[in-house]
Fold this protein.
Amino acid sequence: MRKAFNVKHYNGFFFIACLCLFILYSPLLIVMIYSFNDSLSITKWGGVSLRWYYEVFYGLESEKFKLAAWNSLIIALMAATIATIVATAASIGMIRGGQFRGKSASFALISLPIMVPEIVTAVATLIFFSAISFKLGILSILVAHIVFCIPFAYLPISARLQGIEASYEEAAQDLYANRWKTFKHVLMPIMGPGIISGFLLGFIISLDDFIITNFVKGAGVETLPTAIFGAVKQGIKPNIMALSTLLLLFSIFLVTISYVIGKKGEDLKTKNNKGDKYEV
Amino acid sequence: MATGVGGGRTISSTFSPVKIWLLLPSWLIIGFFLALPVLLMLVYSFLTKEFRGGVIWEPTLAAYDQFLFDRGLFGDDPPKIEWKYISIFIRSILQATGATILCLLIGFPTAFFIATRVDNNKIIWLLLLTVPYWVNLLIRTVSMKFLIRDSGPLNEILITLGLIDAPLKLINTNLAVQLGLFYSYLPFMVLPIYAALERYNFTFSEAASDLYAPKWTILFKILIPIVKPGIIAGCILVFVPSLGAFLAPDLLGGAKTFMIGSLIEDQFKGNAGNWPFGAAASMILLSMVMIVLIYYARAQSKEQT
């Protein structure tokens, strides 16, 4: 048989893939490198130092950034937790409910926060809060974050549940477990990796959000992204680069966690499948 | 009957009877805090503006009128077409289209390259690609701004290499916004195309090559038509957020390169302070996005039947 070329190889695709990574990483790496710059000016290189990291933690603006970081963390934790609970319930309802009237409408509603452009969500939420005279502050940010975290948490959770057969729960119920016990002791442990990646996704999305937060935060309340944005408006200072580097490392840390957990989940799955094979 | 990925049954007699209660929290939260607000926004777009933000509850078409027509300073001149806002929308569409094309040109070969690696290398490449996707968009945009500013590292490197004599004036241009959008949403293009290529059966390509099809013909006539849903998904994931983007035009474009996102923001947080007009602009943006999404859903369901 003629084998003139490899259909999985195209000249230049390797180069473009490298270019893609180069484009994605070079701005981040440059900011990382310049965050260690000892010079006051952001243009000139003045040797390696950690002074801007010191500045982030103990400098003039450190109080502002610490408060903002706290707000961000608390909002992200609460929004992701609530969204994960709501999304877990919703995915059980959707996937364990079979075909029912309003199923596609429910799905559309759950995905609505992803489909509506962020800036539109921001405008609508601000108008709504002002119409019902809801005081803008931490609470309004939290509510807005819960809304857009739900679909992001829903996706991995429902994907996981889709791969779990209903026979597990039915077996539990045959053994006289009530609904709550069935969920707690049977379904939740199997859904675990999906629930955790749903939570992490929601957490990151909430931590990341700038546009919606900027609209509904009210005066004086800042999260980390809005504080950074405010500072950048006056020019990129070296301490912003140090702060950005720290956030970047935090994101990489979270990606690693979610990757490790995802891999564990997959290992478990293949183990289960192997077990099934032996049973048959 | 619904079946799961593994072919097992996913409908259960345990949880099916209480599905309403399980779904209720998500219905209430999203319905009350997003669906209702969007409807309210539609109402607001037909109300009269109050200076200093807010609205007066008097129905009017003023917001949409302001968008389309110029009636002079006192509003009694004969209406002329107002190009100011229309051109902002056209610019946004062009910018988003440009970013989508750029992302596709870089993203498709990258996805193809990753999908054809052996498993272990594949995971490393995918992880390398996912990390920037998880990094804060604001930080990525700020990094871009730092890189391409007049006295920034990019210009310095180019001058040192002798490629240019004077620094490129990139910042505050349409090109900078284009670059920023491309950079922001590039991972969104690669991941869905990669997912589609993962499901692609390369024996189709082999068969075509056995029948003496040239290499690039195989790519364009066999592979691309089959993975098209993934490509379209990637394009939508880049186009839709680019259309309403705020950070890239604001940080990289400056005041001269307004896009829809900055126009809307200006009505609520900036100096313009015209809530009904901002609501109307948001409604127009939302309708454009919905048209794209409905078109996509139609195409998907056609594909499946």
Summary: The mean pLDDT of chain B is 83. DSSP finds twelve helices and four strands in chain B. The radius of gyration of chain B is 24 Å.
